[in-house]
Design goal:
Largest sheet: 7 strands, mixed
Distance between the termini: 83 Å
Oligomer: single chain
Radius of gyration: 24 Å
Helix content: 10-25%
Structural class: alpha+beta
Length: 134
């Protein structure tokens, strides 16, 4: 009687262990978010490399919103291709998994003078202001 019960407990433990391994490894392989295009940008603030805030003017409105992006392992390109009478835009795309994970940001701006410095705060490790060199 105890032998069959021990086999049942051992089999149940194996099923639980295999199920836990399956759940662990399936949760590690998450989908990357779709590339995002942020349009109608009127000002760009750089807090530090990989952390940007965009002031976005809603279409046909006087309302301006602020969105902050914290991007990890980020590679940023500044593309000077927006005419002065049009609003700037950004394209954000994440690629790779694990150690190969990178975020690519293309900021389409009028000129390098569109970049503005912004504040940053690392708690007890310090705080400050990024200054743009012109």
């Amino acid at each position: 009687m105890f032998k069959s019960q021990n086999r049942f407990v051992a089999a149940l433990m194996w099923v639980i262990l295999l199920g836990a391994c399956f759940l662990f490894f399936s949760s590690c392989d998450k989908e990357l978010p779709a590339p995002e295009k942020v349009e109608n940008i009127v000002r760009i603030f750089m807090h530090e490399p990989g952390r940007y805030s965009f002031m976005i003017q809603l279409s046909d409105s006087d309302v301006v919103t602020m969105r902050t992006f914290r991007l990890f392992n980020c590679e940023t390109r500044f593309i000077l291709d927006v005419p002065q009478d049009e609003k700037m835009w950004a394209y954000i795309q994440e690629k790779g998994k694990g150690p190969e994970y990178r975020t690519f940001v293309d900021l389409h701006i009028h000129s390098v003078r569109d970049m503005e410095g912004a504040g940053w705060d690392h708690g007890k490790f310090g705080r400050g202001q990024t200054h743009i060199i012109q």
